[in-house]
Amino acid sequence: MTLLALSDVDTYYGEIHILQKLSLQVGEGELVCLLGGNASGKSTTLKTILGIVRPRRGSVELDGEDVTGRPTSYRIARGIAIVPENRRLFAPMTVYENLEMGAYLRGRDGFDEALERVYGLFPVLKDRRKQLAGTLSGGEQQMVAMGRALMSDPKLLLMDEPSMGLAPILVERNFEIIQQVHDAGVAVLVVEQNANVSLSIADRGYVLQTGRIVLADTAKRLLANEDLKKAYLGR
User: Fold this and answer.
1) Domains of the chain listed by start with CATH number
2) pTM greater than 0.85
3) CA angle 231-234-161, nearest 5°?
4) Contact 208, 23 (CB under 8 A)
5) SS3 state at 24
6) Each residue of 5-27: pLDDT tens digit?
């Protein structure tokens, strides 16, 4: 079943046409990556999914419901969570308090179970639960950002540039955790410039260029695509 569907979306900033007839889908429990360079429209795609910007034409459907005219708060309540670019933690708050914020909509219902699942994925966060989030390393902050998103028990997890600013060994570990989340049944849309690592764990992928989808295929076929290799994989 399709969980997220963007159909013929045209999104503008003023009179600047950013997304042009953009269509993509994410199925239940599927891991999909959206690849693109700087100024390709990746961030605008996420903002359109979240309702931060509204398309001038086209539709956004979530779990079979047209949410094109619905506010961001409604979409979040319907099961979307995001790990934003650069993490955007509540730096003066503790790790535990940041995780609590992720469970804001669910309250205490299932909170303890969700917290233990997050600690199971990120044992270091349990050890550092009283530490201020802003004092953690970049890799640890990324763990908090992912844990915070998972505390809401989302149907769809949006990942915005999860490899940005991380050392290669942490990038690899980060994507292993994304794979674990996917294996647990959560649908994931990864927005990335790092084609090699994101396609290595994805089911399918899309390539975005100046607001248009120029390639869409299984991850395996995209990894073998000569044009993609030249543009994103450096070979």
Assistant:
1) 1-79+189-235 (3.40.50.300)
2) yes
3) 70
4) no
5) strand
6) 999 999 999 999 999 999 999 99
Q: Which value, in Å, is the radius of gyration of the alpha carbons in the chain?
A: 17
Burial class (CB in 10 A: 0-12, 13-18, 19+), 116: exposed
Residues 6+ apart with CB under 8 A from 192: 33, 34, 35, 159, 161, 162, 163, 198
Contacts of residue 187, Cβ cutoff 8 Å, sequence gap at least 6: 3, 4, 26, 27, 28, 29, 30, 31, 32, 155, 156, 157
Helix, strand and coil content of the chain, in percent to the nearest 5, comes to: 40, 30, 30
Would the CA dihedral through 116, 121, 123, 128 be positive or negative?
A: negative
| pLDDT tens digits along 76-123 | 999 999 988 777 898 899 999 999 998 887 767 789 999 998 998 889
Query: Cβ distance 82 to 131 under 8 Å?
Result: no
